[in-house]
């Protein structure tokens, strides 16, 4: 009885004997020794497919007790579901981006450990005790707040996506990355808890000439952006909570701005200063970067809003089809304009479309799930999804976007994604004409 | 700041009242509703009040720096990543050159070819550079680096000295090529449902299949180094 993987005494040990001596049992022990890297479930050698009549060690033993893992972790088999980066994209990892594994995610909320990262000078590991938020400039009463001050204000919780405007930026010229994680993973969605920015602005008393607000981080980049006062008073949050717990350091612990529906970089992380002014600041991150270069050499600045976008998350390059048969095609849609109104799916590269089912909840400026049953006949197919938002805006094709914006604008590629399905069920990132 | 100490005329007060009636509790009242926190001292405000406004240099501090001084600081603290003449090392940002490339197939946006405002350069160096040691430069060093980088881009002469008066006056060649009003939505499509395209015209123009650009999406992180 001491030959169990965990060394514990089994309950009702008689039936474990044959299993303990089977080759499968030994392979399980090997897998257990390998630890979190093991990706396959143990199977009984010679027993064919998993399931009955096999009995498994986890069914015939006492499991680990409470607080075995005081902060829970995903199952060992999920070890490959992680944020990933594209090493050739940036000079280093400190001013860089990682991508959420949206091909493996199940709902509209991104687990906090899988929320995409974007840093301009690395992750700041802030001591919340010493962190302060200063609000000043064109205000009646400048204010200095500790975190214990901030959590006293009336709080709200709201579910919103945050998307980097460079999501899809590598696909302007051509299909390049054969992966949903890398074509669309610069987006995540969370429930944010914090103080409406309007509450804080009322507290300091914005002077009549105050029209713009600058937000600045406590990171090494002192990342800063200017936002119009109207948006600040509308729906912005000073957030300290993310999916029910404190913000993760990667998302700005202990305090960040959340600007619903606008490009992610304006939701300044590690927020330490808010300054009210009468004009925008034209910071480096709103002139040299996060401006959109057009084919005529002109550039668009202050293109904050995220246009409506959708993508099929199953099937996708990472999640191919198996044999022909009935499948549920699944995907995500979102828009910075408010709510998703409709998503259509095409199996023939945009010749014919069918309306998909939207899954509740359909929330404003949040990820929305859609699905559609599909009887796949095993023939080649070109899968696309197209979202229409509550303003009537229709997600464009990449060809339509290129006609206006060329191929060098980097940001705000919200085009329809085409997945090529081959007869063997494999899936590839393609673009069509 | 001058604007903070400005006395408000009666008209402005009345305007605030009108705004308040529309916006509810969002704007100024006479008193704070909650009163949490403290009022920062002027010294506390000054210590963190680092921003410099791009279009007019509002917030530029006292001090000055020349192109020659900047060249020395740059060689010591910047050239490892940006190259001695701002040409950029590896994938680190190129700071100079690229004039006339913005309409090209491969544009080279740099301080000289792209940035609309010179004072933004002071602000960015002062808040974020050097990359591993931000906020370590004295104002004179930031001015000097600003002068040097502008000179690398042929935007100021070799005897230029940057300070709070001279820097905002430096003209930037690409200034007029920015628009600050978002023209989107700039596409318009009808959500056609059937026979929307000629099926024969649907051709694949590019595929990611076979390209070696995609890191693996299973197992450990991919550093994309040759195995």
Automatic annotation (TrEMBL), chain A:
<dbReference type="InterPro" id="IPR000572">
    <property type="entry name" value="OxRdtase_Mopterin-bd_dom"/>
</dbReference>
<protein>
    <submittedName>
        <fullName>Sulfane dehydrogenase subunit SoxC</fullName>
    </submittedName>
</protein>
<dbReference type="InterPro" id="IPR030835">
    <property type="entry name" value="Sulfite_DH_SoxC"/>
</dbReference>
<dbReference type="GO" id="GO:0008482">
    <property type="term" value="F:sulfite oxidase activity"/>
</dbReference>
<dbReference type="InterPro" id="IPR005066">
    <property type="entry name" value="MoCF_OxRdtse_dimer"/>
</dbReference>
<dbReference type="InterPro" id="IPR006311">
    <property type="entry name" value="TAT_signal"/>
</dbReference>
<dbReference type="Pfam" id="PF00174">
    <property type="entry name" value="Oxidored_molyb"/>
</dbReference>
<dbReference type="Pfam" id="PF03404">
    <property type="entry name" value="Mo-co_dimer"/>
</dbReference>
<dbReference type="GO" id="GO:0020037">
    <property type="term" value="F:heme binding"/>
</dbReference>
<dbReference type="GO" id="GO:0006790">
    <property type="term" value="P:sulfur compound metabolic process"/>
</dbReference>
<dbReference type="InterPro" id="IPR036374">
    <property type="entry name" value="OxRdtase_Mopterin-bd_sf"/>
</dbReference>
<dbReference type="GO" id="GO:0043546">
    <property type="term" value="F:molybdopterin cofactor binding"/>
</dbReference>
<keyword id="KW-0500">Molybdenum</keyword>
<keyword id="KW-0479">Metal-binding</keyword>
<feature type="domain" description="Moybdenum cofactor oxidoreductase dimerisation">
    <location>
        <begin position="303"/>
        <end position="418"/>
    </location>
</feature>
<feature type="domain" description="Oxidoreductase molybdopterin-binding">
    <location>
        <begin position="124"/>
        <end position="280"/>
    </location>
</feature>
<keyword id="KW-0560">Oxidoreductase</keyword>
<dbReference type="InterPro" id="IPR008335">
    <property type="entry name" value="Mopterin_OxRdtase_euk"/>
</dbReference>
<dbReference type="InterPro" id="IPR014756">
    <property type="entry name" value="Ig_E-set"/>
</dbReference>
<dbReference type="GO" id="GO:0030151">
    <property type="term" value="F:molybdenum ion binding"/>
</dbReference>
<feature type="region of interest" description="Disordered">
    <location>
        <begin position="1"/>
        <end position="21"/>
    </location>
</feature>
